[in-house]
Recover the amino acids of this structure.
């Protein structure tokens, strides 16, 4: 583990370490967002009731498939569902009733207790991009992701003030065998960051490995009584729950670990082309999936997920940051709140191939909708590019900077005496200016959100410095952050035990690349 | 008038004209937006009442200055205000009472009646960038704007489906004498487009010229009874109404032409650093300004404007697309609705020097806030760059494309039987796909908003076509639009009369360049 070794050496003292400490970028992490603003409730009561009614009809009359999973069928049968082959028809109201044991909020613990996050209620927890097989940066272009890329993204996430969560598969480390990647990925999250993270879901055995690694990191007792992972369980939409995803969900639920139950829908392909029809399907899938988790273990923490893209009906390409995607996000948020469940949606989603204007329009549209739509857990909050095929280094820091604006927006507007500023208004009067007045002097430091990467310079300065665009400014910031990264401390005994676990597990299996 | 001549020749027939007609880009213009969605009400009742109370205190105790304008002081004195030098102190409640004669909605007529717009209520009218002395495009970089640039922007605006309004000073034609530019600008709007437009406000005499040109275009009788211009009157914040702006406002109000009464505020410099303090000042300024318009002519159509930027307290640069700017927009919208007045704010505002990711994040943040915050008239809806110093050709078409998404978002979510899509959900069932189902076939054409400029292509195709970023794609679209532009028809007698008016006016004055 090169990174661990390097960090230990630098922590052990000496002039180099002191210099590093003096020049270190602050690794302050903001507290998760607590909304002090209303949600935007797009759908009216009538529409919501129709969707809820139709979702129940769908579950009762059409049903859902639990594939290759006789145990799941047994659980459903015992709960009162009608089983026909792999089809599970759920009597009206049963799924919603079962969902009631899922908590409305839960704490996900981090190894650094200052990084613990509350998920649900008025909170918004931000986690980075998940899943891309490619990475891109300005220097190297688009290429298959490696474990070294993965580690860089974890480091960037650790150093990003507005990111509360280290995430999961920040990119697919394609240079590591498929059956062993999860070990290296979890090891990176556990050692290179101290923020909360996600577990593996690509096989039930890997979910078990994730739990076991957490037992090393947090202690076995702690893990059995506390949630230390939030993992992503996609529904195979429409209405299908496959055995791989359900196998992982079963492991996590049984161990009281949180899952996001997320329909994964390219609108028009995996759901109807209408917003209301799509919301009906999303709700039916979430009802069935979360109900199932509660059959495995009542009280298991779950998140109502909705990952829905629109589609370009000409090319079939999924599209992002579109009005229909926002409408579905708003509606799904309302449906989740009516179930008192934490809600996952949104992200800096985009279809663009580059971190350009298209990427930013699309991402900003979704980030704004996610804040206003009451999202509690936002995966893909930074770094997502090209429809999720690419993790972009530059976009990671550009998006992460915008997340700061969400924090400020969520604070709402103060209107105490100081905020009213009547003294300033009286002091300055017509034709004056406020730059030097007492109120400004007392308040300017926190008055305005400030970017860490965008350009606010005078034109001439900007021009002399090379007329850099956002991508170039972001490249420089990525480089600076990686150069000044310092690994958070970890008990050496735990570090050794984790390394040994990974080494042993890897040695116990042949490499598999598919 | 080169453009007119060229267009006439091409309309006169021949193979070239027929080919042009076959290849012409559609110049369909969408109807102004009618919101079928709620507004986002950020401030609570208590905060709003405090701001309203404080604004009255400000007007009564501190007052506002009407500079170099004895007639205005007389009007205020007769209305019951306390006058001391140029300071006007307005008794509590008087300004609000006077504002009540301003209409809550009005129609601005266009020479093509299909382009008439309703301003106020649930409508949202979109107009392009206003005011920049520079232009930028990918080929030529940043340079002083000329009348030829101005005409290009008017043409692009005319051809932009989602733009309802031709705007005003889409860029400053710096190659034309200052005292004559308004004539060429108005002439361009009147002849190169058939959408509604704005009048000149840089001197009372130029406002009168604007009215006279409208009398030629619409007929004298029509102009006296109908609103055919909406013009931009900035307040010299804090709390100062200068004679140039008020001179223009007086001309327009007396002629029943609409004005936007807009505090123009760089937060922290021209207003307190707090959102609540800034809103208090904005409200006081709007109350005083619109009240004054109603002293000139009760019933004159007016818009509650709020142009407020945040500021980078390090450099003093105004900043855009920030959370504070959005908070002020939301609050100002609530204050405007409580006065039953149309509301102007927002735009594709940004500080970036290039149409890059920064420009798009900042612009999208503001466009979203403007839609949700209940803006009725959005100036700068496309083309704004570098804090308003630059009109960008590429950003014009990129922003204008995003405006389409606002239209779709504003429609809200249908939930009739077709939108519920229960037949589709039953037909497809678990594990199927919706691409070929009856509901999709019947609905896909209008199901999803579609871009006209962004990239949704497969990676390989995009790469083979040159891996173009948004700016490059937008350049190509600008070129295509300008190449296929066709001038809207205009009665030749009116066209001649307008040209003669401009020529005579210009001949009557020496050139002035300051």
């Amino acid at each position: 583990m090169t990174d661990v070794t390097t960090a230990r050496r630098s922590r052990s003292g000496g002039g180099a370490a002191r210099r590093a400490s003096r020049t270190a970028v602050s690794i302050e992490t903001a507290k998760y967002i607590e909304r002090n603003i209303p949600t935007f409730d797009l759908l009216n009561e009538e529409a919501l009731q129709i969707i809820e009614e139709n979702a129940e009809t769908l579950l009762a009359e059409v049903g859902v498939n639990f594939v290759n999973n006789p145990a799941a069928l047994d659980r459903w049968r015992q709960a009162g569902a009608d089983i026909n082959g792999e089809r599970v028809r759920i009597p009206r109201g049963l799924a919603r009733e079962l969902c009631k044991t899922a908590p409305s909020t839960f704490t996900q613990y981090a190894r650094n207790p200052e990084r613990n996050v509350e998920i649900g209620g008025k909170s918004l927890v931000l986690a980075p991009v998940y899943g891309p097989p490619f990475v891109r940066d300005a220097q190297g272009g688009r290429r298959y992701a490696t474990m070294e890329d993965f580690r860089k993204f974890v480091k960037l996430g650790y150093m990003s003030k507005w990111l509360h969560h280290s995430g999961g598969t920040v990119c697919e480390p394609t240079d590591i065998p498929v059956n062993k990647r999860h070990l290296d990925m979890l090891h990176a999250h556990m050692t290179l960051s101290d923020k909360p993270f996600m577990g593996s879901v690509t096989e039930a055995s890997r979910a078990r490995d994730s739990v076991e690694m957490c037992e090393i990191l947090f202690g076995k007792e702690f893990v059995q009584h506390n949630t230390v992972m939030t993992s992503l369980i996609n529904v195979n939409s429409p209405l299908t729950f496959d055995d791989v995803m359900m196998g992982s969900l079963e492991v996590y639920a049984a161990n009281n670990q949180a899952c996001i139950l997320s329909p994964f829908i390219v609108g028009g392909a995996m759901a109807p082309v209408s917003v209301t029809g799509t919301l009906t399907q999303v709700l039916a899938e979430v009802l069935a999936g979360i109900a199932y988790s509660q059959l495995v273990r009542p009280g298991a923490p779950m998140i109502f997920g909705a990952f829905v893209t629109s589609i370009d009906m000409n090319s079939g390409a999924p599209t992002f940051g579109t009005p229909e995607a926002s409408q579905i996000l708003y509606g799904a948020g309302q449906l989740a709140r009516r179930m008192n469940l934490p809600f996952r949606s949104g992200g800096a989603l985009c279809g663009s191939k580059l971190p350009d204007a298209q990427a930013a329009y699309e991402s900003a549209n979704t980030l704004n909708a996610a804040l206003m739509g009451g999202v509690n857990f936002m995966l893909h909050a930074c770094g997502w590019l090209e429809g999720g095929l690419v993790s972009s280094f530059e976009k990671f820091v550009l998006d992460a900077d915008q997340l700061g604006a969400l924090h400020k927006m969520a604070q709402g507007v103060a209107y105490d005496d100081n905020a009213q500023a009547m003294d300033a208004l009286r002091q300055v009067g017509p034709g004056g200016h406020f730059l030097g007045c007492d109120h400004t002097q007392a308040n300017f430091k926190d008055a305005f959100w400030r970017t860490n990467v965008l350009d606010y310079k005078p034109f001439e300065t900007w021009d002399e410095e090379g007329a850099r665009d956002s991508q170039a400014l972001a490249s420089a910031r990525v480089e600076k952050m990686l150069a000044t990264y310092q690994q958070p401390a970890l008990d050496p005994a735990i570090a050794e035990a984790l390394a040994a676990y990974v080494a042993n597990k890897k040695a116990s299996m042949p490499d598999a690349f598919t």
Q: What stands out?
A: Confidence is low (pLDDT under 50) at residues 1-26 of chain B. The CA atoms of residues 5 and 11 of chain B lie 10 Å apart.
